[in-house]
Design a protein that fits this description.
By secondary structure, the chain is an alpha/beta fold. It is built from 14 helices and 19 strands. The strands form four sheets. The protein has an eight-stranded mixed β-sheet with strand order 12-13-16-17-11-18-10-19. A six-stranded mixed β-sheet has the order 2-3-1-4-5-6, with helices on both faces.
């Protein structure tokens, strides 16, 4: 049977410690699409919306595109911006007629001013608007801080199963399949959510290694059982600093909430049992550079995990640039340093001219001071590139106007816009081949692994300064529930094991 779906996307991963107030311009800068432009942009891409669109077209379902708005992770979303985004989504809801279900791609870690649970607030508003019988199906990012409010106001929440996030297309297609099953009456989802008192940083929570690999495998094994619709294990995003931030497990079973409870609680207890395995092995910047120089192969990837713009850090950190210069490193590349002022100066100088000035360290004082460099401007670019790796495959993106400045054998990609440079195509788009470099500095915590791990001779995670550091003791949390591991001693097990989560 053919169905009509209203579809949309609203995504922001909020780092409450970032000084960057997230306004409408930040959403417009990265991706603000409405109506048919949404379908045109995402059709054929390896994204969550791309997967849902593909599955719907195969079934000859009709899609009513609404709004797709996303912004690079940063600080709290301005309240007026959030109000505008909600209103635009509701406008499409009011204008549409006769649709059978709503499908939304949400993040799950958005925090707006005075609204800590932004997605829960949004879903509650939509539920009031469409009534109890309208199916609302959503996908959530792996780093969602899942709240009771979200669960209560959606029929089905599907989390990404991978970090790096390479399964968006599959989750989108799965969401379409399950939405059809709900509409046909084949399934009636019953949900149960458990949040153990665990809130690790993002680096030790990647799903291809360690404790989250174990937990994700268990969750997927439960999904194979009869009647189990979905089991999502969420790494959470502690830097949002809301009460519910941290790990969570959401089980969805057909018409059997008690079975969902059992599954979610077992996963929560197993997570607590292996809590001490959530550890990151990091090296200080100079030690990391020295280790890279001693390693016989190339490229050596230095992951600047604490200056990950994908986690809300500024991205213009200079600790590794300073260390490379101090250690006399050559044949290295830094991907990237957002610095609009330096870009303007480089464009004024022109290709072949000599840049002499400071780069980086200008957005805040959390990621290292500006560093003086001198050297030729090697290339100028509009900053547009196409993702070719496993993440966001086929999407065209821009890092803003971009310059490549070389100093002492180090090629620095300096660009206008903050973004997470997870794909080697970022470097290749400005004439830098990572395979030919001895050292490549990438401003990313985990996502870079999807594309860089297959080509890396060695990966070293660096313990630099920044707002996405896995060293959580560096942060002054104000709203996170306490006690919670690893911030607090772990002798409080009995306080949560016997309740509903």
């Amino acid at each position: 049977m053919r169905h009509r779906f209203l579809i949309g996307q609203l995504s922001h991963e909020t780092n409450a410690f970032s000084p960057i107030r997230t306004c409408l311009q930040h959403f417009q800068q990265r991706g603000f699409l409405e109506g048919p432009a949404l379908l045109e942009h995402f059709t054929g891409t390896h994204t969550t919306l791309g997967g849902f669109i593909h599955a719907a077209l195969l079934q000859e379902d009709e899609l009513i595109p609404s709004l797709s708005a996303s912004a690079v992770p940063s600080g709290l979303v301005a309240r007026d911006t959030f109000a505008i985004l909600m209103q635009r989504l509701e406008d499409y809801l009011d204008a549409a007629s006769g649709f059978d279900a709503i499908f939304l791609v949400l993040h799950g870690a958005m925090v707006a001013e005075k609204i800590p649970d932004a997605e829960g607030y949004l879903l509650e508003r939509l539920r009031r608007r469409v009534g109890a019988d309208m199916p609302i199906i959503c996908t959530l990012d792996y780093h969602a801080n899942v709240t009771d409010r979200m669960v209560e106001n959606a029929d089905l929440l599907l989390g990404l199963n991978t970090y790096p996030h390479v399964d968006g297309w599959e989750r989108g297609a799965e969401a379409h399949h399950l939405a059809k099953a709900i509409l046909s009456g084949a399934i009636t989802p019953a949900n149960f959510l458990v949040r153990p008192p665990l809130a690790p940083g993002v680096v030790p929570a990647r799903t291809s290694w360690g404790p989250m690999e174990q937990l994700m495998n268990q969750a997927l094994a439960y999904e194979m059982e009869p009647g189990v619709i979905n089991v999502s294990a969420f790494g959470g995003f502690v830097y949002s600093d809301i009460f519910e931030a941290g790990l969570s497990f959401l089980a969805t079973v057909d018409r059997n909430r008690e079975r969902a409870r059992t599954i979610a609680q077992k996963l929560g207890r197993e997570a607590w049992r292996i809590r001490h395995e959530f550890q990151a092995d990091l090296k200080p910047p100079r030690d990391a550079v020295q280790a890279a120089l001693k390693h016989p192969g190339h490229p050596v990837i230095l992951a600047d995990v604490a200056d990950n713009t994908g986690g809300g850090a500024s991205g213009d950190g200079t600790a590794l640039l300073a260390a490379l210069l101090e250690e006399g490193a050559r044949n290295a590349a830094i991907v990237t340093i957002p610095d609009p002022k330096a870009v303007v100066e480089a464009f004024a100088i022109g290709v072949g001219g000599t840049y002499a000035g400071y780069v980086g360290g200008k957005i805040d004082d959390q990621h290292g001071p500006p560093v003086w460099i001198k050297g030729p401007v090697r290339l100028l670019s509009d900053g547009r590139f196409v993702y070719r790796g496993p993440m966001s495959t086929g999407l065209t993106a821009s890092m803003g106007r971009t310059a490549v400045i070389e100093t002492n054998g180090i090629a620095i990609i300096v660009n206008e816009d903050r973004f997470q440079p997870v794909d080697p195509e970022v470097a290749r788009s400005v004439g830098i081949e990572p395979l030919e470099k001895k050292i490549v500095v990438v401003k990313s915590a985990v996502h870079y692994r999807a594309s860089y791990e297959p080509i890396a001779s060695k990966i070293i995670e660096v313990d630099g300064p920044g707002l996405s550091s896995p060293n959580l003791e560096r942060f002054s949390f104000r709203n996170l529930r306490r006690p919670i591991f690893p911030l607090d001693c772990d002798d409080f097990e009995g306080r949560w094991q016997d309740d509903d989560g």
